[in-house]
């Protein structure tokens, strides 16, 4: 095989790493792929690490040990995360976004691959150290952000449903109290979807009273699965006390009434602002 030049080798290596976030690749893998010595590959990785750090493109991390190697994490710096979310908040605030009944229209945000990918990276950055085995969400609006978070973490996505599906086999069903309506609803998850003793990160689109989130926590207890964190795209200011605790939302929503008009005030969450 014709000798591969360093710039070609580094470009290919970065593409491989960024296409498989949080997955460990051994030096031997790249040595065999490019026909280069380990010392050469180590130098290439050091150069790539400096490039990604300098331009805010994520982080290349060296993992030691028998199963060690290098992995890419699409981390977002606190400053960049806050700036990005502030831009979203400006777009979502105002009168035009408020629907009858005091609801906020932001389906266009949740359906944008560019936006949901960035939000997934921000959430993943906050939970890399918790090492979840999978991301759990509830159908349906939370799926895009949960999927991009799972991709950034390099783990599977598991979706709880309102009703079990025949093609998913036997399922565990629980009843929970919806935090928004106060009604009793059903949550279902296939028994084969998760393994006992694993770790889950809950990701969903909206948090109001926390009833659905509490239902997902209870569902994980039925599987003997630990919940290592809960993240949401948006949380309402009221009610202040939720049915869960320890959650992180990217944005907070407050619908304010002035006469007959209602205005959406959307702000970055306190943890993104260093509070």
Mean pLDDT: 93
CATH topology (level 3) name of the largest domain: Rossmann fold
Fraction of residues in helix: 25-40%
| Topology as a string of helices (H) and strands (E) | HHHEEHEEHHEHEEEEHEEE
- The tally of structural domains comes to 2
Structural class: alpha/beta
Main sheet strand line-up: 6-5-9-10-11-12
Binned strand content: 25-35%
How far is the N terminus from the C terminus? 56 Å
Low-confidence spans: none
Largest beta sheet, briefly?
Answer: 6 strands, mixed
| Integer-rounded radius of gyration | 21 Å
For this structure, the quaternary state is: single chain
The count of DSSP E runs of length 2 or more, i.e. the number of strands, is: 12
What shape does the CA trace take?
Answer: globular
Known CATH architecture of the largest domain: 3-Layer(aba) Sandwich
Task: Report a brief summary of the structure.
With 275 residues, the protein is of the alpha/beta class.
Can you describe what's shown?
The chain is of the alpha/beta class. It has two domains: 68 residues, Arc Repressor Mutant, subunit A; 196 residues, 3-Layer(aba) Sandwich (Rossmann fold), CATH 3.40.50.2020. 35% of the residues lie in helices and 28% in strands. The strands form four sheets. Strands 6-5-9-10-11-12 form a six-stranded mixed beta sheet, sandwiched between helices. Strands 1-2 form a two-stranded antiparallel sheet. 35% of the residues are buried.
């Amino acid at each position: 095989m014709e000798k591969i030049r360093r710039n070609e080798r580094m470009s290919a290596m970065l593409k491989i790493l960024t296409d498989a976030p949080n997955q460990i690749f051994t030096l031997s893998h790249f040595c065999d792929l490019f026909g280069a010595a380990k010392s050469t590959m180590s130098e290439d990785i050091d150069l790539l690490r400096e490039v990604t750090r300098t331009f805010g493109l994520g982080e290349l991390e060296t993992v030691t040990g028998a199963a060690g190697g290098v992995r890419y994490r699409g981390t977002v710096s606190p400053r960049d995360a806050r700036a990005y979310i502030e831009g979203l908040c400006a777009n979502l605030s105002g009168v035009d976004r408020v629907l009858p009944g005091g609801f906020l229209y932001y389906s266009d945000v949740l359906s944008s691959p560019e936006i949901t990918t960035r939000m997934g990276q921000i959430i993943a950055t906050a939970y890399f150290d918790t090492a979840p085995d999978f991301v759990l969400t509830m159908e349906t609006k939370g799926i895009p952000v949960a999927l991009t978070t799972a991709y950034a973490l390099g783990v599977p996505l598991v979706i709880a449903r309102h009703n079990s599906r025949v093609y998913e086999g036997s399922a565990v069903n629980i009843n929970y109290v919806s935090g928004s309506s106060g009604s009793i609803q059903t949550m279902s998850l296939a028994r084969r979807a998760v393994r006992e003793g694993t770790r889950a990160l809950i990701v969903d689109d909206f948090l109001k009273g926390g009833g659905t989130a509490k239902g997902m926590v209870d569902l994980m207890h039925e599987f003997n699965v630990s919940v290592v964190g809960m993240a949401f795209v948006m949380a309402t200011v009221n009610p202040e006390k939720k049915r869960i605790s320890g959650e992180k939302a990217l944005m907070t929503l407050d619908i304010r009434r002035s006469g007959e008009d209602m205005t959406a005030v959307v702000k970055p969450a306190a943890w993104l602002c260093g509070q």
